[in-house]
Design brief:
6-stranded mixed sheet; binds adenosine-5'-triphosphate; 39% helix; alpha/beta; 4-stranded antiparallel sheet; Rossmann fold; binds magnesium ion
Length: 299
């Protein structure tokens, strides 16, 4: 049995070996504020049941920071994501975008806000219009960024560049529909869209849940490269506290709609205070340990 101290050393070693992590000592609190919230709450009423899905959360996300929000199923992660994206209104509290109260009260203001924040969802199949071919999916992104009047050749060059950033060959995709791609290719196409849209904030809700471990590492690598290249803020939503430890600048641990703990990964994961964080962590190092077969009976 390993002591907690030994487990921590194991976690730290693992983190050091991850090449795509950011500069873990960078102090993001000195960077401009990108998105913040005070007392953000969402209550759902269905029949006689009232669910407080997100319960008075406070957060400060800075420019270029990679933030993970970690919690078990039903803890409120997707509800919070939808509020951050402006797809769902908080029932209480306020969200600030670049230090000003966020205003998405009209269609035009919403559109402007969505120039600044974009998302990659759990299910890539739901993210595309199935009747639009891939080149028009990418072309839309160029148009949205004000490139409508660029010469056709320039647009093709930009689309090809975005595809090659995610290791897709544009020439092989032009005439295809999104449903003709594999799950992994579809995820990569989503990242190619983000490459073209260059939002200030990218919100990724379990973006790697549909794909195998090998493609997962590639996708994460691409997301982190994108962050390093463009300086965008990335909000990463996950069940996986181990993954969050390796890739994040800050983590927020969510339980029953509340942030029970937040801070730098080394603080939160190596010196957890909340019982919930301790429980999430206690499950992680086991996967790196050899299986103990001594207690197994063979027949
Ligand atoms: N539209 C809705 N109406 C009523 N209740 C809802 C609605 N959306 C979410 N909830 C409830 O809010 C709580 C939080 O759900 P949410 O989808 O935000 O969790 P999650 O952390 O994203 O879970 P998962 O990891 O499974 O995706 C759950 O109890 C859920 O049943
Ligand atoms: Mg969810």
């Amino acid at each position: 049995m390993k002591t907690n101290e030994e487990k921590n050393v194991q976690l730290e070693d693992k983190r050091e070996s991850v090449t795509f992590g950011s500069d873990r000592n960078k102090d993001f609190s000195k960077e401009p504020m990108c998105l913040s919230g005070r007392g953000v709450t969402r209550v759902f009423h269905t029949g006689k049941t009232t669910t407080v899905a997100v319960d008075h959360v406070d957060f400060d996300f800075h420019k270029g920071e990679l933030i993970s929000i970690v919690g078990e199923s039903g803890s409120g992660k997707t509800t919070l994501s939808k509020m951050l994206l402006g797809l769902l209104e908080p029932t209480e509290g306020e969200i600030f975008f670049k230090d000003k109260p966020r205003d998405i009260s009209s269609g035009a203001k919403k559109k402007e806000y969505w120039q600044g924040i974009q998302a990659i969802f759990q299910d890539p199949f739901s993210s595309y219009n199935v009747f639009h071919k891939i080149d028009s999916v990418l072309l839309d992104c160029i148009n949205m960024r004000g490139g409508k009047n660029l010469p056709k050749e320039k647009k093709y060059e930009m689309m090809a560049e975005a595809c090659s950033f995610v290791n897709l060959k544009f020439a092989e995709l032009t005439n295809k529909y999104p449903f003709e791609l594999s799950g992994g290719q579809m995820q990569r196409l989503m990242i190619a869209r983000i490459f073209l849209l260059k939002p200030d904030i990218l919100l990724a809700d379990e973006p790697t849940s549909m794909i195998d471990a090998c493609s997962r590492a590639t996708i994460l690598d691409m997301l982190l490269n994108l962050r390093n290249e463009t300086g965008m803020t990335v909000i990463f939503i996950t069940h996986d506290i181990g993954l969050a430890y390796y890739i994040s600048d800050s983590v927020y641990i969510m339980e029953h709609g509340k942030f029970v703990e937040s801070g730098k990964p080394d603080e939160v994961m190596l010196h957890p205070k909340a019982a919930y964080t301790k429980r999430l962590i206690s499950d992680v190092p086991k996967i790196h340990e050899p299986w103990d077969l001594s207690t197994v009976e063979f027949h």
